[in-house]
Amino acid sequence: MKIAELRYRYLFQQYKNNIYSYSLYMLKNKIDADDATQEVFIRLWNNMGKFNYLAAKTWLMKTTHNICIDQIRKRKTIMKHEYVFDDEFAENFSDANDHQTPEQSAHVNMLSDKVKDAIQNMPENLKSVLVLYEIQGLKYKEISKALDLPLNTVKVYILRARKKLQEELKNYEPHEVF
Asked: pTM for this one?
């Protein structure tokens, strides 16, 4: 096997879930997310050796973002798509405690749904930065490069997204106190 093929396989295994989940967040549709993910890996194969391998994550996320934006722009009519957040979101959001009572589980599920809805209703610029930072775990500089935004803009967008999320959730109270 050639080095390029080994690198491609490594990058595919390393980032396929990140790319798919980001596409799903942005496009709100499994089929569109599948298409975007496939397109990212086609572009990766076609561009192997044309980018800094050490900055592959940034290159991949920037490519993913651009493909998602292109797909959003191509939609002529806005249709309400089914969206399903990946398991990664639920795992990050819920307690690691497997001994939750049914009431606690229901509360966590309801709060998770509220957070998902609040994120989905954000403007695209805030949503993409928040998802890349909080859920995908990219650093400010990586987001800046991936989205081609100034570093300070990324910081401001993250702050605004957090405030918007906080505002959306401030009136949420569980039905029962634990």
From this structure: 0.58
